[in-house]
Amino acid sequence: MAQSLAAAQRASRVPVITDWKYLPKWWLRLIDTITAALARIDWAHVRERSTEYAKLARMHKPIGAALLLWPTWWALWLAAGDFPPWGTLAIFTFGVFLMRSAGCVINDYADRGLDPEVRRTRERPIAAGKVSPREALIVFLALIAIAFVLVLFTNKLTIELSFVGAFLAATYPFAKRYTHLPQVYLGAAFGWSIPMAFAAVTNSLPPLCWLLFLANVLFSTIYDTEYAMVDRDDDVRIGMRTSAILFGRYDVAAVMACYALFLAIMAAIGVWRGYGPFYYAGLATAAAMAAYHYRLIRTRTREGCFKAFRHNNWLGAAVFAGILLDTVPWRDLLARLA
User: Fold this and answer.
1) What mean pLDDT is predicted for residues 167-182?
2) Are 221 and 258 in contact (CB under 8 A)?
3) What is the pTM of this model?
4) DSSP code of residue 276
5) Domains along the chain?
6) 97: helix, coil or strand?
7) Sequential DSSP letters for 224-241
8) How far apart are CA 158 and CA 91, in angstroms?
9) How many Cα atoms are found within 13 Å in the side-chain-facing hemisphere of 312?
């Protein structure tokens, strides 16, 4: 006991590193330099710019990221045949949000001369003059760089595929100037996470991967056509090309046909993988939602089309729930609980 008290007394006389007088002079100069630099920063301006950059990247509107996230999770679970590795799941989940934000930034950069002419987009940061095109490019490159760092924690095939994904994401906004089906290009751009997910989990690109990729192209064409139906009048006036304009009075029929093909392909995937009742219950729920979307878009009102676009988030969630529940080993789980 006496020895412990003596040791404690000696320890109490040891200099504490947080006591400034014991720090080296060069360390003190470094602290002074950093403190002075921080004091010169206009934090109110930093907050203001950060807020505008967040708006530019649509971080306040997560619905778009969710529409990209569900197909990515479909791919991860289908590739793994079970719960995917936690690290891979985290990389792709965070990567989806980064790439969706990067896509929004480069889209606004490309449309900076058109957005002021469209009612729904005229208040976006670049169109409103709150963010310069140069700033937007810097934000885009920063988001792409962070996403690429995440990919470096996967494998060689995934890293190689990421360059294709970056190219598709960077060029998608310009597709609407040359084709009436930019929504298909969007499906390829944001659906590229599907082959990357298969590559990360299995280090291969099996036929199932490309079948799911095709299903996602249809899914993206569906919700982005509904989105384009909201702005059709403005897009016609400014000379923009979209699937909503291409389909014309057959737009609702085209959307419903895409829903049917999408659900048929997902059903075929279920047969291929030998999924059971939970999976098909998820698809049945998705089919019911598609029927509800028909009611929303058949009158072609802005409000109805936009609501259908947003509601596709729940359709994607229903499909994922079916995949997730069908991969749960229910017999083993129930046996453990019994």
Assistant:
1) 82
2) yes
3) 0.84
4) -
5) 57-238+246-325 (1.10.357.140)
6) helix
7) HHHHHHHSHHHHHHHT--
8) 12
9) 33
